[in-house]
Amino acid sequence: MNVLVLGSGGREHAICWKLAQSKNLNKLFVAPGNPGTAAVASNVNINPLDFAQVKSFIVANGIHMVVVGPEEPLVKGISNYLQADPATSNVMIIGPGQNGAQLEGSKDFAKSFMLRHGVPTAAYKTFSASEASEAKTFLTTMKPPYVLKADGLAAGKGVVISPSIDEAKETLDLFFAGKFGDASKKVVIEEFLSGIELSVFVLTDGQSYVILPEAKDYKRIGDGDTGLNTGGMGAVSPVPFASKEFMDKVETRIVRPTVEGLKKDSIDYRGFIFIGLIKVNNEPFVIEYNVRMGDPETEAVMPRIESDLLDLLEKAATGKLKGASIKTSTQTATTVILVSGGYPEEYKKNIAISGLDKVSETLVFHSGTKEHENCAIVTAGGRVLALTSLGNSISDALSKSYSAAETITYHGKYYRKDIGKDLMQ
Fold this sequence. Notes:
This protein is of the alpha+beta class. The chain has helices at residues 10-19, 51-60, 71-75, 78-84, 98-105, 107-116, 132-140, 165-176, 244-264, 297-301, 309-317, 394-407; strands at 2-7, 27-32, 42-43, 65-68, 92-94, 124-128, 146-150, 159-162, 186-190, 196-204, 209-211, 216-217, 220-222, 226-229, 234-237, 271-280, 283-290, 332-339, 363-366, 369-371, 377-379, 383-391.
């Protein structure tokens, strides 16, 4: 089978790394990819949002399956675009159409979906800019802290938790004034839930599903979960507090009603559902849905999957997941993210990276790198590398990931020193 993966980050590198092990794989392409994906796939210089170019490549190279890594092409309708053209209508696509992608593309759509199908989530109300005064009145009926979410895609930065009502009102004004462009034309205000978070990943063919290994990621830039939010500073899988009893609740109360809800709403969904959960007094609640795998969780989840990923994806794309199972390693995976100095605010790029060839016990997934003219690997983003290790315990895996973090060097390198430490207490 010829497969095209769309995307350029650590998530796509991890997916390509796993797909490269599949027995039925013929050729693996990634667009645009990065220096890391080049070791396991053929990089193609195509922007995933240039649907016409993507389609031309699919036709010219006999692509059988497209795996969509990031959310934006899905929300903008790449699945619909390819399925509407006779030349690509038979290509298997891992990722929902535009209607299903609204689960991530619109917070209001996702919340109303959960409410409609009895999926436990925080109480909420949605307001548009013309309803700013009503929104501020609604805030006075709630207890602090206040959770405000831009309705649309905001590159993972559209959620603000305000400790005081005055700050919440100011944030609301900024949102409605266009802080996130069209994404914040509508704002979801919801009840704050106190608990511990984890990510659950589901692969579905729209009828049946398999649940992938769960993970916990670390969003804040600083140790002890301090400082600004980032795209993710590390991840651990499995999650010790996600007991069988708890995960049974997740499947019964969240996964099953979500898949059944898609069916009831006549949404033909074939692909991944990332369920951002919070555990409150041993009960699961949904914080958000994403319509693709997470990053950096994918870098911790993929190395734990022992089943043939391509086989599972083919079953999902063709409606044959019923009865399928997924084999998972009992080992622990820990991912530590190396970032550029200054991230998530301003940072420099094109800084040479050394020591990559000296790492042996750790998988190095490239997130924000590029190849320089002299073949040197340089930084090209805020999150630069994802260092994933397998071990018999969290501490065993972490010792390898942190050893790799010290071995790889570049000017301004920064990483959190406490990934997974809270799970070992």
